[in-house]
Design brief:
Elements lengths: L18 E7 L8 H17 L4 E6 L2 H7 E3 L6 H11 L4 E6 L6 E5 L8 H12 L8 H22 L6 E7 L1 H4 L1 H7 L4 E7 L3 H9 L3 H4 L5 H7 L3 H13 L2 E4 L2 H11 L5 E2 L6 H5 L4 H20 L10 E8 L8 H17 L5 E8 L3 E4 L1 H33 L16 H14 L10 E3 L6 H8 L10 E6 L14 H7 L2 E4 L9 H7 L4 E4 L3 H9 L8 E4 L6 H17 L2 H14 L5 H17 L1
Parallel strand pairs: 1-2, 1-6, 2-5, 6-7, 7-8, 8-9, 10-11, 10-15, 11-14, 15-16, 16-17
Antiparallel strand pairs: 3-4, 4-5, 12-13
Length: 612
């Protein structure tokens, strides 16, 4: 075992000796949400500390996801490999290999569908032994149950059949992975169990329906509310996982309060989430990357807005917010209100700046808005004609200058462009220009009459009028390189912007402001988000490094919106030099959140588990 610890590690970061670590999560080789980022980004640091031979990940096997993320093993000579072969002999469809991410960790993947014929029996014993009553024909729950049964059988077999000659820690993430915990405890196996909830399901539902969720938290009856929201089977799994673990953890102090009241057990430890900051640093220089990707956003903005009217791109600031579509929980309502107030303030100040604010989220839609796509295609045609003219003029100018006899005289460039290209350019521009306002939303949304973002924009008349200083682009899909409007991936888009906005009312942790920080981008979050709460407790003078925290604990909606509009105005009024300096401060501050620093909390939890 590689037990070497870097010299600058604090003593509490030491890992248990002669021990295997298994991390079990639904999002191993299966990208669904934020836990995928947690697990994936942590891998290089864990392998550095534990050694690749002592660290294993367990997840579900879905063929489509595995094709992109999983590389099957060819050597099964290790004890784990031999145990996998034995499980295959017993009829389990289990796959062993490597996850194709930084660090190439060893993974064991179980196909949930391979034991679907056993589901009635598995559910029967879950109810008989642990009083967990699970419904039939619920696709997600059925897959979770089938996966959990196989994980429990594998760990049990590993520790009772002579394949394991070391101590074992099994770290389960979220309710989708936690179902094996009661069975492992019932069998009294020598496995130390850690369970981390990254958010309580019931807390998310309650927060979406109660704007004073944290004030009312102590007064909810968990069972009554779970039945009301029709999520009691999942809450039962969460509670059984939390109570069955030797060490129960969560990601923030805020979520810890939820756990106390909704799961009936207070966390033993808080495990804040980090990032592999080196991955963000490795291939970039902050300002150069910003300029490169800002140009791509400029291309979109020109195609989207300039067919109606233009503004100075050199004085344009790009804001964005992104995440799951939860209008109140994610603070989209507060963001919109603050943007409306910012628009008025900038108009009153006669500001020469323009703000383009992007809302990047996931909402059901039919297709791209045909007019938006058409405008993008037309401006690309204009760009191609301009390139043709540039090439033609360049050649003719060079020939004319070098062919001059005697004195030098600059030629008339207009005479060097063919009438064909002049006419082609004129037709393209005339076909592109319009008197209509630029579209607010880039897609045709399903049931857009009930969309809360659009309802606010219509009510506030924030609909991309020429006189508006704040323009809105609502993009109800995530950004990727295959997107014809932006032609870049999400991290590149983030780097091209100037401010991220995430003033969540409910957010157990919140990776988006941390990703902004690592990309050299200032951001706004709230002290009701786990990340914002952590920053306010642990990072002094956080505003100076571009981490702006809105107070949503004590301030009402109106005061919070004013505070946020003030911060936005400060960012708008920064000089170019000040924005560049802030970018470097952001990136430097992000090192605090590298897993090489925050990973010590995980190792401390493992040490506590071993002693229990």
């Amino acid at each position: 075992m590689n037990s070497a610890i870097r010299a600058d590690k604090p003593p509490e970061a030491e890992i248990p000796s002669n021990t295997l670590l298994f991390e079990i999560a639904w999002e191993v080789c299966n990208q669904v949400g934020g836990i995928y980022t947690v697990i994936r980004s942590k891998v290089p640091t864990v392998i550095e500390q534990w050694g690749s031979e002592n660290y294993f990940l367990i997840g579900p096997y879905f063929e489509e996801q595995a094709a992109a993320h999983f590389e099957p093993a060819t050597d099964y000579n290790s004890n784990i490999g031999k145990a996998v072969l034995k499980m295959q002999e017993r009829g389990f469809n289990v796959h062993y290999g490597q996850w194709i991410v930084s660090g190439r960790p060893q993974v064991i993947l179980f196909d949930p569908y391979s034991v679907y014929d056993k589901l009635p029996e598995i559910k029967h014993y879950l109810f008989q032994d642990y009083h967990i009553s699970l419904p039939g024909k619920d696709e997600l729950i059925d897959k979770v149950v089938a996966f959990g049964f196989q994980v429990k059988e594998f760990l049990s077999y590993l520790c009772t059949s002579g394949f394991c000659n070391k101590g074992v820690i099994a770290h389960f993430h979220e309710w989708m992975a936690g179902l094996p915990i009661p069975g492992l405890r019932k069998e009294n196996l020598d496995i130390k169990i850690v369970f981390t909830t990254h958010a309580t399901l019931l807390g998310r539902y309650l927060a979406m329906n109660d704007t004073r969720f944290y004030e009312h938290l102590a007064f909810y009856n968990w069972e009554t509310e779970a039945i009301r929201f029709n999520v009691k089977p999942i809450v039962d799994i969460e509670r059984a996982s939390a109570h069955g673990a030797h060490v129960f953890t969560t990601v923030s102090e805020l979520t810890g309060r939820e756990c106390t009241h909704l799961l009936g057990r207070s966390p033993d430890m808080i495990l804040p989430n980090g990032l592999n900051i080196q991955r963000f640093e490795a291939l970039h220089h902050v300002q150069n990357q910003h300029l490169q990707f800002k140009e791509k956003i400029h291309d979109f903005v020109m195609g989207h807005f300039f067919q109606s009217y233009s503004f100075d791109l050199d004085n344009t600031i790009y804001f964005f917010t992104s995440g799951r579509y939860e209008y109140h929980n994610k603070g989209y309502d507060l963001t919109l209100e603050a943007l409306a107030r910012l628009n008025w303030r900038m108009q009153q100040a006669n500001s020469n700046k323009t703000v383009v604010a992007f809302f990047i989220t996931k909402k059901p839609f039919y297709t791209f808005n045909p007019e938006v796509l058409h405008s993008k295609a037309l401006i690309e045609d204009i760009s191609r004609v301009c390139e043709e003219i540039k090439e033609q003029v360049g050649k003719r100018l060079y020939t004319a200058i070098t062919s001059e006899n005697g004195r030098y005289e600059f030629p008339d460039l207009r005479e060097m462009v063919d009438d064909y290209l002049r006419l082609k350019l004129r037709r393209n521009v005339q076909g592109w220009k319009t008197k209509h306002l630029p579209k607010v939303v880039t897609h045709t949304i399903v049931d857009d009459g009930k969309d809360e973002i659009l309802a606010f924009l219509r009510m506030a008349n924030l609909v991309n009028n020429r006189h508006d200083k704040v323009k809105i682009v609502y993009h109800p899909d995530f950004i990727s390189t295959s997107n014809p409007l932006f032609k870049m991936d999400y991290p590149q888009f983030v780097r091209g912007c100037h401010l991220g906005i995430f003033p969540s009312m409910y957010e157990p942790w919140g990776y988006t402001p941390l990703e902004c920080l690592a990309s050299g981008l200032p951001s706004i979050t709230s002290n009701l988000a786990g990340f914002g709460d952590y920053v306010s407790r642990n990072v002094h003078d956080h505003e100076k490094v571009g981490l702006y925290i809105i107070d949503r604990k004590t301030k009402d909606f109106n005061r919070a919106a004013d505070e946020m509009a003030n911060i936005m105005m400060e960012v708008v009024e920064l000089s170019r030099r000040e924005r560049i300096a802030l970018r470097y401060k952001c990136e430097e501050a992000s090192l605090h959140f590298d897993w090489s620093n925050l990973g010590k909390y995980y190792n401390k939890a493992y040490n506590v588990a071993v002693t229990r």
